[in-house]
Amino acid sequence: MKKKLETQFSTRQYMLSKDFELYYYNDPVRPRMALHTHDYYEFYFFLEGDVSIQIGQKVFPLAPGDIIVIPPRVSHVAVIHSMDLPYRRFVFWISQDFCSYLLDQSPDYGYLMQLVQTRKNYIFHNDKITFNSIQSKILRLLTEMQGNRFCKTPLVLLYVSDLILHMNRLIYERNHPERAEESESLYQNICTFIDSHIEEDLSLDRLSKEFFVSKYHISHIFKENLGLSIHQYITKKRLALCRQAILGDMSISQVYQTYGFGDYSSFFRAFKKEYGVSPRDYKDMNLLDPPM
After folding, report:
1. CA-based nearest residue to 169, from 208, 112, 225, 118
2. Is the CB of residue 141 less than 8 Å from the CB of residue 159?
3. Cα separation, 225 vs 21, whole angstroms
4. pTM as predicted
5. pLDDT for 101-119, tens place per residue?
6. Contact 218/194 with Cβ under 8 angstroms?
């Protein structure tokens, strides 16, 4: 990991920022800390070391990839057994005021923090692949926070939101595996429906009525599974069929009407954006030089 991202460890247990702070520590030697509390949330991402964590009166051994969430006023301290291994971790502090701000945007931000408050289960184990995805988001955020590039402030807020929501989803779906399976099944069923009705109206309103779920939920699962909006997915499907049909006996006007494009101008723009040439030019080029 880049040396410039490291912060020298301090025993300070109060925030300098009113919203959030993020640190990467890699300590060859670490001052002893006493059991302590603070008035903000602490997210502790354990990377490496021979370390346990004491929360209240209980001591928990740590493994690489563990995430510990410490709510305000809960006593805790890291217990170092040996310095034979480097002691590496990320520490993310979030003020209660900033948490309230996030909750005003959506209650989804608060799932994990409320979970640890109610269940007193502070430690979440992760496999290497899962933790790597979290670590990549942390590094992206840390790099942006320590830089001075244009758009820094809004990007930092975006990356903070992304990290927090990612962790909330991860733990929520771990605790509700049937929900994750339902979303995957719904996504597959909608894809099958689209393939079977590609020539028909496939508006979000229709899909919502067909599958008895909200338009927002349909949009969300497509963005999550493909990184595309459902409109983009349907358009790409239709354009692929149009491209094949153009080389057959159908006229271009028949093609775009058959596959759900309302008018030629919208079809022309979408086709040229996708394939770099107009429908007519594509047909002419392939008639002169048919694909192998």
Report:
1. 112
2. yes
3. 31
4. 0.63
5. 999 999 899 999 999 998 9
6. no
